[in-house]
């Protein structure tokens, strides 16, 4: 009861016309045949009665890989072309195609799928099966669809090697490349799992990747999260209360006051996998990277694609989303300000609200609390205000910001972005107070329990302490590197440095995570302003807040003394020693300082270097760059530019994160450009800047927000915990009750 499965003909059209003798594309180490013992097709421990369904373009290697996977699982292998279509039609696929033509062929192929059933098997689809909706719905009912995602240039090369220049569905005048691109939309609609297959990867390697991906799909319990302050013994005792991605998105802060991190770390991509993304768009890269970081049990690939498309589809003014622009010499700018509120926070906060809405239970209302030093506030308000109406009724957001610690335009934005489910509250203190207050509220179980019992409302966080805020930022650091490769600036594998204006340590942590995942980042340069506690810490290992007072600067997003996300990085370099992290942060709270051990400081300095920039040097850099290039840096980017000039050795490219649009800081920019008369009206300031025809142009979103500003107002309260908690309760009563 076995048969020999040989390489079958591809139903492709060669340069000599229709042929049934085109050899199936061979990998670098082909398998001549596979024995299939049909008497042993009963359920296997990995897939049970489910089928593994391999899907992908012609030349992806579905049949070859399917045979190897079937052999490893000791289960039946079914090739739709050979075992279903040709058997059903009693003729070869190429003959059927000649007989009925392209359009009718797809319909006939779909009808054959609808009559087909199997279980516990490995099934290799044809390249055009996914174009028949009803047929694919039928197949998915009892199968896990695995997409063999091979870059189009690789497929074209493979098809050319066997003299194939046409495939099913390709009309006259349509190139092979165009039809392959057209088909991608159908592949993306149906898959449960994606397997990246770039370059000359061997079929056996692809088969192993398929099996690993299916194992991951079947075992969501392997992707749990832990607190940065939990010990090994505590984790072993808490196995019955594991936290998954959906949980940490909803909860924000760990119950012990720590931050959530993935227990097994972030996934690592091979060089070949990264290279397969060089030709991809930003949205495509985001989809691939985030699929590997978010288990499909938390968010299925199809839903994740919908969320990413909504976040980056029409809300960004630049089609490249996060373009990389050459500045001068070896310096490049990663422009992160093309979102609706003109800062890098939009990358996470156009996506995070939709992730949050999908993950939370429907039985409870949620109030999202956020503290901001400037940019986060308007980004959170804008992001959550774009939710569907039904979600707005059960999700509201409250934004706390230092009343006198943000720029006039930032404040105007936060007031202007208030909607029916989104409010801003100015606090008569600094950002550190706002951030600390929110942490204390989250860890006050009596208060949070009262809100849940009395009002049916739970609290959640949207600051970068929330894991869903960090992940989207990893994408743009990886994408920036791939863009340099795509532009021919560097070959893949050559190192780069990144320089990032840093306050709360989230953005630079995302770059460090990208490095861990396989992006060749050599050094992360941490750029501070006069609030340079991080510079001192990275240079000495001493984190010391004693005697320090926050200094308001032209770069308010960097006006931070307690950098929350630093805790995640210390947990990482301390080999997940939660007890040590707890000790350090308890000492910081009680004594105002802590010191790293020498070995940990050495680890840290392998990744990080740091410098800081004065207010005068910040303004001088803006003036100098504009004078020589016509390009206007915002104040935060200028801080990073100054530090990069001082610390980067020019032996490799350095990507400077341009974290905000200069329009948000018009008074400082006008001062830097030495314009004497500055109107105090924010809208007038933007019009004045626009008259200089700068690069990039004044941000449209800011202009629109300021034009709509009337007599909008916002709440202001004292720096008092009880008053903040009272405001929260009033908002809950007004919105949810």
UniProtKB/TrEMBL annotation:
The modification N6-(pyridoxal phosphate)lysine is found at residue 345. Keywords: Amino-acid biosynthesis, Pyridoxal phosphate. Coiled coil: none annotated. One of its GO terms (molecular function) is pyridoxal phosphate binding. CDD domains: SK, Thr-synth_2. Pathway: Amino-acid biosynthesis. Gene3D superfamilies: 3.40.50.1100, P-loop containing nucleotide triphosphate hydrolases (3.40.50.300), Threonine synthase, N-terminal domain (3.90.1380.10). GO terms for cellular component: cytoplasm. This is THNS1 protein. It comes from Crotophaga sulcirostris. The gene is Thnsl1.
């Amino acid at each position: 009861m076995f048969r020999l499965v040989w390489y079958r003909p591809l139903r492709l059209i060669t340069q000599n016309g229709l042929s049934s003798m085109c050899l199936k594309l061979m990998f670098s180490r082909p398998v001549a045949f596979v024995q299939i013992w049909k008497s042993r097709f009963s359920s296997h421990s990995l897939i049970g009665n489910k089928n593994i369904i391999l899907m992908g373009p012609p030349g992806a290697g579905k049949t070859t890989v399917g045979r190897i996977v079937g052999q490893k699982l000791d289960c039946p292998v079914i090739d739709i072309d050979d075992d279903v279509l040709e058997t059903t039609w009693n003729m070869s696929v190429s003959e059927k195609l000649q007989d009925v033509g392209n359009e009718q062929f797809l319909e006939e192929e779909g009808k054959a799928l609808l009559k087909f059933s199997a279980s516990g098997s490995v099934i290799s689809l044809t390249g055009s099966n996914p174009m028949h909706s009803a047929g694919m719905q039928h197949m998915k009912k009892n199968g896990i669809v695995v997409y063999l995602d091979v870059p189009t240039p690789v497929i074209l090369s493979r098809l050319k090697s066997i003299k194939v220049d046409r495939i099913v569905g390709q009309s006259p005048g349509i190139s092979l490349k165009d039809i392959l691109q057209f088909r991608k939309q159908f592949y993306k609609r149906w898959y449960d799992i994606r397997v990246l297959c770039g370059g000359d990867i061997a079929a056996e390697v692809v088969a192993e990747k398929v099996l690993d991906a299916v194992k991951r799909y079947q075992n969501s319990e392997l992707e749990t999260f832990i607190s940065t302050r939990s010990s090994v013994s505590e984790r072993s005792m808490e196995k019955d209360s594991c936290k998954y991605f959906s949980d940490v998105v909803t909860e924000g802060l760990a119950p012990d006051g720590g931050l959530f991190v993935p227990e097994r770390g972030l996934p690592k991509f091979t060089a070949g996998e990264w290279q397969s993304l060089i030709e991809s768009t930003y949205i495509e890269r985001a989809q691939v990277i985030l699929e590997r970081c978010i288990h499909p049990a938390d968010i299925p690939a199809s839903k994740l694609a919908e969320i990413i498309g909504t976040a980056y589809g029409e809300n960004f003014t630049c089609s490249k989303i996060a373009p990389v622009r050459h500045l001068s010499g070896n310096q490049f700018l990663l422009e992160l300000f093309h979102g609706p509120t003109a800062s890098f926070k939009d990358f996470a906060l156009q996506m995070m609200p939709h992730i949050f809405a999908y993950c939370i239970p429907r039985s409870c209302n949620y109030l999202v609390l956020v503290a901001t030093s400037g940019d986060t506030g308007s980004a959170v308000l804008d992001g959550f205000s774009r939710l569907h109406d039904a979600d707005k009724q059960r999700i509201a957001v409250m934004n706390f910001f230092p009343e006198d610690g943000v720029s006039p335009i930032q404040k105007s934005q936060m007031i202007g972005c208030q909607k029916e489910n989104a409010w801003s509250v100015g606090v008569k203190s600094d950002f550190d107070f706002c951030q600390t207050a929110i942490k204390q509220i989250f860890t006050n179980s009596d208060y949070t329990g009262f809100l849940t019992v009395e009002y049916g409302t739970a609290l959640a966080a949207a600051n970068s302490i929330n894991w869903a805020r960090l992940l989207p930022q990893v994408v743009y650091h990886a994408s920036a590197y791939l863009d340099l490769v795509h532009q021919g600036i560097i070959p893949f594998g050559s190192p780069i440095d990144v320089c990032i204006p840093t306050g709360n340590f989230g953005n630079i942590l995302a770059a460090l995570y990208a490095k861990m995942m396989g992006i060749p980042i050599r050094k992360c340069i941490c750029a501070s302003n006069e609030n340079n506690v991080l510079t001192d810490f990275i240079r000495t290992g001493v984190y010391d807040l004693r005697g320090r007072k926050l200094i308001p600067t032209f770069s308010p997003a960097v006006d931070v003394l307690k950098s929350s996300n630093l805790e995640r990085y210390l947990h990482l370099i301390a080999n997940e020693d939660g007890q040590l992290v707890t000790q350090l942060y308890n000492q910081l709270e009680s004594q105002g300082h802590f010191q790293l051990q020498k070995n940990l400081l050495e680890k840290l300095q392998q990744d990080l270097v740091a410098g800081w920039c004065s207010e005068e040097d910040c303004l001088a850099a803006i003036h100098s760059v504009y004078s020589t290039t016509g390009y206007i840096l915002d104040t935060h980017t200028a801080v990073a530019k100054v530090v990069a000039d001082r610390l980067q050795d020019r032996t490799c490219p350095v990507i400077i994160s341009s974290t905000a649009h200069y329009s948000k800081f018009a008074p400082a920019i006008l001062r830097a450009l030495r314009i004497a008369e500055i109107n105090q009206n924010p809208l007038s300031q933007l019009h004045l800047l626009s008259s200089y025809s700068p690069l990039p142009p004044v941000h449209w979103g800011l202009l629109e927000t300021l034009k709509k500003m009337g007599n909008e107002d916002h709440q202001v309260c004292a720096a008092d915990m009880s008053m903040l908690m009272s405001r929260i309760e009033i908002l809950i009563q007004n919105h949810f009750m």
